[in-house]
């Protein structure tokens, strides 16, 4: 029996998502939560197979980010984000937080949601079969909350970065191991969309990490193309 949490403060939307899930997989258990406090309490005591959540809950614009971080610390349950926030900005941010996928409200149909949800459910079932107990994240891993200033942490220490630099870091980390082009990085900055400005932001990011870890070398410059985040054994 699968158990799913729907975390959405708008009751009609929550009921619609619940109805789609129940129709897609009869017999599934769907629990609805409407506030951050109730959702975090449920996550602390329950093991869900999938969590569907909105980023903005009530007056908390980024409550969903805190909930995703709580999920990652406890169970690593796959998360499908359904939000009105613009996908062009928030999809890469949610990916950096290890959310499974991001659907922007009013831009998708029931079939899109159901297809994505069932794919996540299948992946969750396969993961349970092959990895019944997920290992704890290593202490040296980068932890991101790119919607709050000064929120990324490196080896448990806070990295002091302005918001634009956080967004660039999130974009790099979301595609770690792959080259992120200048054009892709232009999409996450609001102004100064030129290569010199991007390089300045990268320099700021490196300097901030090296204040905590003088040996940090996790961002590669790929000449004429862009930059790449690399997980180097023994970093720090």
Automatic annotation (TrEMBL):
Tagged with keyword Cytoplasm: no
Family annotation (Gene3D superfamilies): 3.40.50.2300, Winged helix-like DNA-binding domain superfamily/Winged helix DNA-binding domain
A matching Pfam family: Response_reg
One cellular component (GO) term of this entry: cytosol
Listed name of the protein: DNA-binding response regulator, OmpR family, contains REC and winged-helix (WHTH) domain
Species assigned in the record: Andreprevotia lacus DSM 23236
Biological process terms in GO annotation: regulation of DNA-templated transcription
Superkingdom in the source lineage: Bacteria
Start and end residues of each Response regulatory domain: 3-120
SMART domains per UniProt: REC, Trans_reg_C
Stretches the record annotates as Disordered: 129-153
UniProt GO MF annotations: phosphorelay response regulator activity; transcription cis-regulatory region binding
Keywords of the record: DNA-binding, Phosphoprotein, Transcription, Transcription regulation, Two-component regulatory system
List of residues that carry 4-aspartylphosphate: 54
InterPro entries tied to this protein: CheY-like_superfamily, OmpR/PhoB-type_DNA-bd, Sig_transdc_resp-reg_C-effctor, Sig_transdc_resp-reg_receiver, WalR-like, WH-like_DNA-bd_sf
Extent of the signal sequence: none
Entry annotated with the keyword Transcription: yes
């Amino acid at each position: 029996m699968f158990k799913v949490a729907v975390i959405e403060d708008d009751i009609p939307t929550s009921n619609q998502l619940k109805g789609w899930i129940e129709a897609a997989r009869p017999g599934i258990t769907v629990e609805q939560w409407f506030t951050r406090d109730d959702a975090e309490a449920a996550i602390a005591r329950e093991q869900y197979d999938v969590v569907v959540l909105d980023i903005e809950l009530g007056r908390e614009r980024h409550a969903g980010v805190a909930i995703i971080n709580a999920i990652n610390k406890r169970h690593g349950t796959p998360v499908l984000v359904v939000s009105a926030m613009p996908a062009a900005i928030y999809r890469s941010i949610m990916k950096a937080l290890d959310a499974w996928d991001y659907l922007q409200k009013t831009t998708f149909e029931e079939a899109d949601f159901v297809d994505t949800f069932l794919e996540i459910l299948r992946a969750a079932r396969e993961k349970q079969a092959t990895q019944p107990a997920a290992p704890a994240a290593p202490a040296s891993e980068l932890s991101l909350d790119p919607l709050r200033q000064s929120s990324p942490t490196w080896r448990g220490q806070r990295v002091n970065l302005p918001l634009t630099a956080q967004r660039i870091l999130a974009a790099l980390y979301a595609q770690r191991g792959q080259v992120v082009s200048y054009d892709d990085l232009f999409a996450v900055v609001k102004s100064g969309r030129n290569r010199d400005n991007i390089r300045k932001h990268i320099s700021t990011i490196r300097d901030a990490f090296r204040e905590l870890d003088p040996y940090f070398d996790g961002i590669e410059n790929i000449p004429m193309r862009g930059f790449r985040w690399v997980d180097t054994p023994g970093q720090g």
